[in-house]
Design goal:
Number of strands: 6
Strand content: 15-25%
Number of helices: 2
Structural class: alpha/beta
Oligomer: single chain
């Protein structure tokens, strides 16, 4: 924590009681890590559960041209290694949409694709 010159030792402002285990909601070892989540319905994105009491999933989006399947697959491989659970790609044109099946086959995590031209191009699959 930050220590300023002349600061008196003592509890941090706005600190909560320490929680020693998850079964005791009044005690927290690291209150700044406590996450309160609103109640939501659980869904499945490919093999990943999202919402409800599922663990928080990490998702990211590629910044390659989706039509360049090799570059997009390489970027997806890197985010898989980094621990991402879901990856999103954009399909703004027919070339990107045509590359999507090859990208989905190569990915080990669910791919969520968004289309910006027509609803017919929208794809959501793993």
């Amino acid at each position: 924590m930050f220590k300023s010159a002349g600061a008196a030792p003592g509890p941090r402002p706005f600190s909560r009681p320490l929680r020693l285990n998850r079964k005791d909601p009044e005690m927290s070892v690291r209150p700044y890590r406590d996450i309160s989540r609103r109640k939501s319905r659980q869904i499945r994105v490919g093999s990943v559960l999202v919402g409800g009491d599922a663990p928080i999933s990490v998702q990211t989006m590629t910044n390659t041209l989706t039509a360049d399947a090799a570059a997009t697959i390489e970027q997806i491989r890197l985010v898989e290694e980094a621990g991402a659970d879901i990856v999103r790609v954009s399909c703004p044109d027919e070339e990107s949409t045509a590359a999507l099946p090859q990208i989905v086959r190569a990915a080990k995590i669910p791919i969520v694709a968004g289309s910006f031209e027509t609803a017919e191009n929208a794809v959501f699959r793993h």
